[in-house]
């Protein structure tokens, strides 16, 4: 069946900002969908509010709307662009929810434009847990014993009826299991039900018997309209049921099922996809299996591409999103070819793996001190790393190295008591696997460990074997390590760094010894068919002691080092830059070699580069690749901190780093060098000093003056930066510091109160420097640049100030000798401009500027690095923004119980949304709408610190004028009454006063928006935390800075006064470079 | 420090390449044709599949032995492959179904194993160089292994099917596997009686037939053709090892059955024999089909089934007799995968509709055949 000729244009809905549970895997699926649609000559209309994505690149779609993903916006686009169909299965839960709303509003489905990929009925059947269970019963597929509830009373009654703990609570229609959890007693049960009901889009919960200790499996299934079904990949969770699959360590292929069991699961998955009615496209089906009896139960099914399908695509080489898109257009599987074998085989087959894939999630609990690092049914991971090896141990150890948490493999957590380790293992945490290894080191039997953890004994036996090998290695010394033993250790995935530790040597010496023994990595291809057919696709992974298939070409090539697993501070923006580096170099006729280990990304799509190495971004692994590939140059500037951290070692080992030299980067990072550099340029920086003892810090702080920012000079694991307002506070901070940390140095910087922060991005070819954009932050200094919203063009800067910032940027770029990217952070206090940081590498703001202006910053910078001058590129002038563009940050606080929502110098956001408008106010409103529901009326709660009261009054007055009621805590209310009696203010009691308090006012549902600023001096008052947690819990729009509050008030009032503003695709906004 | 292998083992190809690895199972030597299988599950079904009689099987999946071995997963009374080459052998099995480990199982049943070999290199070697004989043995005797590999007779022309089946007729009562009891259901009842001419039949075939209400009797290959046509309602010619060419007795049984207008089903080797009996030709493939992920297009419905495959010979697509309607082709190489006789109640399927290991969607071949048998029985 060829493609449906009635579909001439398609609205593709993206997933919006990166949040926990919905990360750049949907950029991967979305960009594949864009390409697949374009290949078929379909006009692509795209809706996605996330500017850091590849899919929102102007050339990916015909009309790209960087707008909030809601039904009203989608309906407007459908009308304006006259699309024939909507494809909602590529943008995660966000896109599905949007499609469901469109259907409910009548804009989609019957009477409106058609849905392709999955229809309303299928989405509903899969997502509505009661409907799902009914369908499963009808086809004889077992589900867990459970009850539904749509109110707290019903939920509690269901709990009594099931009469067993633990109980699992799953709210319907939430992403990544938000609001769900495992309850071990009645109190926990009631609390989880209450929060789950609040978060569920249709206020319904599923309460189920727990199957703790059961094994969990997933199948990635595809169906076409001719009813052909295939399993692309089976995935097995190492952690037993109870840990969200996004938080689980997972393995592909499935290893611990017999064929009969696997086929029963496969048959069930097909019955399910048919019963749910997914006519075309991909779905993910999750199963639980009782390890004692083999009893299988289906847990859930997602009728769309998912995080797991991205993982499955990377694990097998089968591009699920691309194929699913073509199936949605009407093709059948046998009409599509398997591209990885160069079309030798059709897409209607099931990939065969001859390797093992291990995925390990990456967490950021360190950023949320109030939150216990416990794993459950609600996803907490911010990213993931994947590794491929020829055996499970090899893949496991490579995956651990890929995490970039400093691990060299199965590092010990340093416990000495087995009982203590086993006690800790009773709760699943990010360290569970390491603790399991420790337990084995301390003599635990596999049987005992299995009992405690529920991890399948086979995995534990394999880990136990590694521990054995570890002991054998530790009994040797490096000079005594022969070729056989070295090879055996490498085949088990022991990193050079781990070997160095075991053999009491250094990584470099191990590397030298290994080279002398002639033990080097060989590379295998991921070909989807276990070598049955030849492949021309150079998607590769390393192993040891086997035939090498890398077959490098003789073309001039560049290696691009990727950014590794996503984490807070290093996300999709850097992947965006890596991809653009590759595409730019390919367009210019060079071959590109991508190295990365993040399965969610577009950069690990084998289509993006000529050669893809799915490998850890460590010195060892990269050097082995360079040894085989011998590229003309290596790019370390696009992948964030990850490649920069190993750049010096690579260079020392002979790699040729192109672009801004490593030494120049060092000059901008070393404090003393940096100060010298700025002095030489005649530029200012906040007064600062470095102390190496507590006493010295106190003495130097006196000279600098308070407030100041402190941070340890070697920040490991995101140790906190802090703003210190007094000597007493500094003393307290120093007391909390490790002495070793102090000895390595503490950096003290004068904090510029009330300063305006500005990001400037520039590109340079070594001679000419062009400023690509000047971004003004909405929040004042003190909020991390990644967390503040920012504006292009600047909000308040004068033309003279902008010109001066640009001048300074050019001076610094020249002095540093930057070739390629350059980002500078400034603070402006009064009239004085200070330089905070220079980053001669790709920055977080690069994609935002490119989307706003259409000027391809990353492409231009990369070509400059490869020696193509700006003049030759025709890039001597940047393009100006046509309209106003706001970047707003998105935070994961709702996933982090107990965490405070206050912003500070340490970054906490996971993603960003862009708002576009003809004014800053309307752009800010659109950016905010991409994240929060904007209330049209109701009450605004205001509770602000003294310095913000005057401004808060102005905001309150205006919001009242727009129809909002004003509620304030006593101090704020009193100020309002004393200074302006023109509007009524309801006073609410403080948290520690008699009920009803401010928190009750929020919980009552009357309050729709919260403005809460606190004085940072001496730390935030504890009672205000309750306000912020309540706002978060109620999913209310909230602001913790007065600048943010002002911006949203401006936006709301402007919309009230005028129309909603024009909505244009970015292609129509972009101006030619001036 | 342990080397890769506690005990060394050698795998030598007749063409001269040798691979060192770790020994498991029986010490060997085991010489035979080297074949690879890309299935990721069901190693025990593969090792016990009589079609692999006398062969050395290279499993490309990374870990083998994880779920151990158990009696219910045997496709014959014991392993039939002579040798087994794997990348990583699991020494401690983990499955509620495991009754033993693969190492001991191979040792007890004479299967010479080699682990820690580059199975991917072997698969590439077979893909590029075509089928090759080999020898696996424990210990370090490379030259001995090479000599034995070279002395091994070629597959073509060998009537291996004669050695793979039963010697005495036997009734079969087992049906499908039941996950609850972990047993194969025992089926009684009085359906039409089907003769299975055993060239090395997998038990799953017998189970699939029994499950569809057919009474099953397994017959030795040497059973006189006339006896079959007289006492049975239908004939199934099973899978089996090697070349269909020399198996004249099967050919005459098939001809007799066709002549008697008995419903006939040929599976794998049986499919090739049936094709020959209808006038088609067979040929040796370069390296055959061995996996559980092969797409087969049903030309009548346009649907694609993912099938289990294990064959080194194939029915030639050119000059397919006019009497045979091509019903299935491989989407990997367009080779003949199934046919139906235009005038007679006869079906052939090249892959393994009984799966085990592999996807079960081609079980509908048995449905089609059972319907044929029933309607034929009703008529006569």
TrEMBL record, chain A:
Chain sites annotated for binding ATP 2: 711, 750, 752, 757, 782-785, 825, 837
Catalytic activity: hydrogencarbonate + L-glutamine + 2 ATP + H2O = carbamoyl phosphate + L-glutamate + 2 ADP + phosphate + 2 H(+); hydrogencarbonate + NH4(+) + 2 ATP = carbamoyl phosphate + 2 ADP + phosphate + 2 H(+)
SUPFAM superfamilies given in the database record: Carbamoyl phosphate synthetase, large subunit connection domain, Glutathione synthetase ATP-binding domain-like, Methylglyoxal synthase-like, PreATP-grasp domain
Molecular function via GO: ATP binding; carbamoyl-phosphate synthase (ammonia) activity; carbamoyl-phosphate synthase (glutamine-hydrolyzing) activity; metal ion binding
Residues that coordinate or bind ATP 1: 129, 170, 176-177, 209, 216, 242-244, 286, 300
PROSITE patterns: ATP_GRASP, CPSASE_1, CPSASE_2, MGS, PROKAR_LIPOPROTEIN
EC number: 6.3.4.16, 6.3.5.5
Binding of Mn(2+) 3, residues: 825, 837
Domain ATP-grasp: 133-329, 675-866
Binding-site positions, Mg(2+) 2: 300, 302
Cofactor note: Binds 4 Mg(2+) or Mn(2+) ions per subunit.
Gene Ontology cellular component list: cytoplasm
Pathway: Amino-acid biosynthesis; L-arginine biosynthesis; carbamoyl phosphate from bicarbonate: step 1/1; Pyrimidine metabolism; UMP biosynthesis via de novo pathway; (S)-dihydroorotate from bicarbonate: step 1/3
Domain notes: The large subunit is composed of 2 ATP-grasp domains that are involved in binding the 2 ATP molecules needed for carbamoyl phosphate synthesis. The N-terminal ATP-grasp domain (referred to as the carboxyphosphate synthetic component) catalyzes the ATP-dependent phosphorylation of hydrogencarbonate to carboxyphosphate and the subsequent nucleophilic attack by ammonia to form a carbamate intermediate.
NCBIfam families: CPSaseII_lrg (TIGR01369), PRK05294.1 (NF003671), PRK12815.1 (NF009455)
Protein family per UniProt: Belongs to the CarB family.
Protein name: Carbamoyl phosphate synthase large chain
Organism expressing this protein natively: Candidatus Amphirhobacter heronislandensis
Gene that encodes the chain: carB
From TrEMBL, chain B:
InterPro entries assigned to the protein according to its UniProt record, in alphabetical order: Anth_synth/Amidotransfase, CarbamoylP_synth_ssu, CarbamoylP_synth_ssu_N, CarbP_synth_ssu_N_sf, Class_I_gatase-like, CPSase_GATase1, GATASE
GO function terms (MF aspect): ATP binding; carbamoyl-phosphate synthase (glutamine-hydrolyzing) activity
UniProt EC number: 6.3.5.5
GO biological process terms on file: 'de novo' pyrimidine nucleobase biosynthetic process; 'de novo' UMP biosynthetic process; glutamine metabolic process; L-arginine biosynthetic process
Swiss-Prot/TrEMBL catalytic activity: hydrogencarbonate + L-glutamine + 2 ATP + H2O = carbamoyl phosphate + L-glutamate + 2 ADP + phosphate + 2 H(+); L-glutamine + H2O = L-glutamate + NH4(+)
UniProt xrefs under Pfam families: CPSase_sm_chain, GATase
Record: residues binding L-glutamine: 51, 240, 242, 269, 272, 310, 312-313
Start and end residues of each Carbamoyl-phosphate synthase small subunit N-terminal domain: 7-137
CPSase: annotated span: 1-192
Superkingdom, taxonomy of origin: Bacteria
Keyword Transmembrane recorded: no
Pathway: Amino-acid biosynthesis; L-arginine biosynthesis; carbamoyl phosphate from bicarbonate: step 1/1; Pyrimidine metabolism; UMP biosynthesis via de novo pathway; (S)-dihydroorotate from bicarbonate: step 1/3
Complex and partners: Composed of two chains; the small (or glutamine) chain promotes the hydrolysis of glutamine to ammonia, which is used by the large (or ammonia) chain to synthesize carbamoyl phosphate. Tetramer of heterodimers (alpha,beta)4.
Family statement: Belongs to the CarA family.
Function in brief: Small subunit of the glutamine-dependent carbamoyl phosphate synthetase (CPSase). CPSase catalyzes the formation of carbamoyl phosphate from the ammonia moiety of glutamine, carbonate, and phosphate donated by ATP, constituting the first step of 2 biosynthetic pathways, one leading to arginine and/or urea and the other to pyrimidine nucleotides. The small subunit (glutamine amidotransferase) binds and cleaves glutamine to supply the large subunit with the substrate ammonia.
Name of the protein in question: Carbamoyl phosphate synthase small chain
UniProt organism field: Candidatus Amphirhobacter heronislandensis
Gene name in the database record: carA
């Amino acid at each position: 069946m060829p493609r449906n000729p009635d579909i001439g244009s398609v609205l593709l809905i993206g997933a919006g900002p990166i949040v926990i549970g919905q990360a750049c895997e949907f950029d991967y699926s979305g960009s594949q969908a864009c390409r697949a649609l374009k290949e078929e000559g379909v006009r692509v209309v795209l809706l996605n509010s996330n500017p850091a994505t590849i899919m929102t690149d102007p050339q990916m779609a015909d009309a790209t709307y960087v707008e909030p993903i809601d039904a009203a916006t989608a309906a407007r686009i459908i009308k304006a662009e006259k699309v024939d169909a909507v494809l909602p299965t590529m943008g995660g839960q966000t896109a599905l929810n949007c499609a469901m709303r469109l259907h409910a509003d009548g804009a989609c489905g019957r009477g409106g434009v058609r849905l392709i990929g999955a229809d309303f009925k299928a989405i509903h059947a899969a997502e509505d847990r009661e409907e799902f269970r009914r369908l499963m019963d009808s086809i004889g597929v077992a589900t867990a014993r459970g009850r539904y509830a749509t109110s707290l009373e019903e939920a509690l009654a269901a709990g009594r009826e099931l009469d067993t703990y633990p109980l699992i609570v799953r709210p319907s229609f939430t992403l990544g299991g938000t609001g769900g959890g495992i309850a071990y007693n009645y109190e926990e049960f009631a609390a989880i039900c209450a929060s789950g009901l609040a978060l569920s889009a249709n206020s319904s919960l599923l309460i189920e018997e727990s199957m703790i200790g059961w094994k969990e499996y997933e199948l990635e299934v595809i169906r076409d309209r001719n009813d052909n079904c295939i399993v692309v990949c089976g995935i097995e969770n190492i952690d037993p049921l109870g840990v969200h699959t996004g938080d689980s360590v997972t393995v592909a292929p499935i290893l611990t099922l017999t064929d009969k069991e696997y086929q029963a699961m496969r048959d069930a998955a097909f019955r399910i996809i048919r019963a749910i009615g997914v006519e075309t496209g991909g779905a993910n089906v999750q199963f639980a299996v009782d390890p004692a009896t083999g009893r299988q139960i289906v847990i859930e099914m997602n009728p769309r591409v998912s995080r797991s399908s991205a993982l499955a695509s990377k694990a097998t080489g089968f591009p699920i999103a691309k194929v699913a898109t073509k199936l949605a257009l009407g093709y059948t599987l046998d009409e599509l070819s398997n591209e990885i074998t160069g079309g030798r085989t059709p897409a209607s087959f099931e990939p065969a793996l001859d390797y093992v894939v291990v995925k390990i999630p990456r967490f950021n609990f360190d950023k949320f001190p109030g939150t216990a690092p416990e794993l459950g049914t609600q996803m907490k991971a911010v990213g993931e790393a994947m590794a491929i090896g020829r055996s499970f141990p090899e893949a496991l150890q490579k995956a651990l190295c890929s995490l970039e948490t400093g691990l060299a493999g199965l590092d010990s957590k340093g416990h000495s008591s087995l009982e203590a380790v086993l006690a800790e293992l009773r709760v699943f945490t990010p360290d569970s696997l390491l603790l399991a290894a420790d337990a084995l080191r301390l003599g635990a039997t596999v049987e005992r460990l299995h009992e405690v953890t529920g991890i399948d004994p086979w995995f534990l036996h394999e880990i136990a074997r590694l521990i054995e090998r570890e002991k054998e290695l530790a009994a040797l010394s490096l000079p005594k390590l022969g070729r056989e033993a070295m090879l055996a250790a490498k085949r088990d995935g022991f990193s050079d760094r781990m070997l160095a530790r075991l053999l009491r040597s250094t990584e470099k010496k191990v590397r030298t010894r290994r080279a002398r023994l002639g033990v080097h990595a060989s590379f295998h291809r991921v070909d989807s068919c276990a070598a049955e057919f030849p492949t021309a696709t150079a998607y590769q992974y390393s192993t040891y002691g086997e035939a090498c298939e890398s077959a490098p070409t003789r073309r001039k090539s560049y290696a691009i080092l990727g950014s590794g697993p996503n984490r807070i501070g290093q996300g999709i923006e850097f992947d965006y830059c890596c991809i653009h580096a590759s595409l730019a170099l390919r367009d210019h006729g060079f071959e590109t070699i991508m190295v990365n280990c993040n399965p969610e990304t577009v950069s690990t799509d084998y289509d993006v580069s000529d050669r893809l190495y799915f490998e850890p971004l460590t010195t060892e692994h990269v050097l082995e690749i360079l040894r085989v590939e011998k590229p003309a140059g290596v790019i370390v500037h696009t992948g964030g901190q990850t490649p920069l951290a190993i750049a010096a070692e690579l260079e020392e080992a002979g790699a040729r780093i192109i672009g801004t030299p490593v030494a120049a980067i060092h000059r901008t990072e070393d404090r003393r060098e940096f100060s010298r550099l700025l002095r030489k340029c005649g530029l200012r920086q906040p007064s600062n000093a470095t102390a190496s003892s507590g006493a010295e810090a106190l003495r130097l702080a006196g000279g600098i003056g308070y407030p100041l920012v402190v941070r340890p000079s070697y920040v490991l694991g995101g140790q906190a930066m802090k703003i210190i307002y007094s000597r007493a506070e500094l003393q307290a901070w120093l007391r909390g510091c490790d002495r070793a940390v102090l000895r390595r140095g503490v950096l003290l910087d004068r904090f510029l109160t009330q300063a305006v922060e500005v990001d400037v991005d520039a590109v340079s070819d070594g001679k000419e420097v062009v400023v690509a954009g000047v971004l003004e932050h909405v929040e004042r200094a003190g909020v991390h640049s990644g967390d503040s919203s920012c504006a292009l063009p600047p909000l308040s800067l004068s033309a003279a100030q902008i010109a001066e910032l640009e001048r300074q940027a050019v001076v610094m770029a020249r002095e540093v000798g930057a070739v390629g990217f350059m980002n500078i952070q400034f603070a402006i206090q009064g009239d004085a401009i200070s330089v905070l940081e220079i980053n001669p590498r790709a920055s977080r703001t690069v994609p935002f500027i490119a989307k706003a202006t259409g000027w391809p910053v990353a492409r231009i910078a990369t070509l400059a690095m490869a020696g193509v001058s700006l003049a030759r590129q025709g890039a001597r002038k940047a393009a100006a923004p046509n309209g106003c563009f706001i970047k707003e940050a998105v935070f994961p606080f709702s996933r982090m119980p107990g965490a405070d929502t206050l912003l500070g110098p340490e970054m906490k956001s996971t993603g960003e949304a862009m708002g576009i408008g003809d004014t800053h106010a309307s752009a800010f409103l659109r950016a905010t709408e991409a994240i929060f529901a904007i209330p049209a009326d109701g009450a605004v709660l205001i509770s602000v610190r003294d310095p913000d009261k005057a401004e808060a009054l102005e905001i309150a007055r205006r919001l009242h004028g727009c129809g909002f009621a004003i509620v304030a805590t006593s101090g704020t209310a009193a100020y309002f009454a004393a200074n302006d009696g023109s509007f009524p203010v309801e006073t609410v009691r403080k948290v520690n006063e008699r009920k009803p308090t401010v928190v009750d006012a929020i919980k009552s549902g009357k309050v729709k928006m919260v403005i809460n600023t606190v004085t940072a001096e001496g730390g935030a008052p504890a009672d205000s935390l309750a306000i912020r947690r309540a706002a978060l819990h109620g999913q209310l729009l909230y602001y913790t800075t007065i600048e943010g509050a002002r911006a949203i008030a401006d936006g709301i009032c402007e919309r009230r006064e005028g129309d909603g503003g024009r909505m244009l695709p970015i292609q129509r906004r972009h101006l030619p470079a001036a | 420090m342990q080397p890769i292998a506690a005990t060394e083992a050698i795998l030598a190809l007749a063409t001269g390449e040798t691979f060192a690895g770790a020994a498991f199972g029986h010490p060997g030597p085991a010489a035979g044709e080297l074949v690879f299988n890309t299935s990721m599950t069901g190693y025990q079904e593969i090792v016990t599949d009589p079609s692999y009689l006398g062969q050395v099987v290279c499993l490309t999946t990374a870990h083998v032995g994880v779920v151990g071995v158990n009696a219910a997963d045997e496709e014959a009374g014991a392993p039939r492959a002579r040798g087994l080459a794997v990348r990583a052998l699991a020494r401690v099995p983990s499955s509620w179904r495991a009754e033993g480990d693969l190492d001991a199982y191979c040792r007890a049943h004479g299967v010479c194993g080699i682990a820690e070999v580059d199975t991917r290199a072997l698969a590439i070697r077979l893909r590029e160089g075509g089928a090759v004989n080999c020898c696996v043995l424990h210990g370090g005797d490379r030259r001995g292994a090479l000599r034995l590999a070279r002395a091994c007779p070629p597959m073509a022309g060998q009537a291996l099917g004669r050695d793979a089946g039963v010697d005495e007729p036997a009734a079969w009562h087992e049906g499908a596997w039941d996950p609850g009891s972990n047993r194969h259901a025992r089926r009684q009842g009085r359906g039409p009686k089907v003769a299975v001419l055993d060239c090395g039949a997998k038990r799953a075939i017998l189970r699939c037939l029994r499950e569809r209400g057919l009474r099953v009797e397994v017959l030795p290959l040497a059973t006189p053709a006339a006896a079959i046509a007289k006492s049975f309602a239908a004939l199934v010619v099973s899978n089996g090892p090697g070349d269909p060419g020399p198996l004249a007795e099967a050919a005459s049984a098939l001809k007799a059955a066709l002549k008697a207008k008995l419903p006939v089903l040929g599976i794998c080797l049986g499919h090739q024999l049936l094709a020959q009996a209808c006038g088609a030709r067979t040929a040796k493939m370069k390296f055959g089909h061995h996996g559980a992920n092969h797409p087969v297009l049903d030309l009548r419905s346009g649907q694609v089934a993912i099938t289990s495959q294990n064959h080194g010979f194939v029915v030639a697509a050119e000059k397919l007799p006019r009497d045979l309607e091509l019903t299935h082709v491989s989407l990997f190489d367009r080779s003949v995968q199934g046919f139906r006789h235009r005038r007679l109640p006869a079906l052939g399927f090249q892959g393994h509709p009984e799966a085990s290991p592999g996807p079960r969607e081609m079980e509908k071949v048995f449905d089609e055949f059972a319907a044929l048998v029933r309607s034929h029985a009703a008529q006569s």
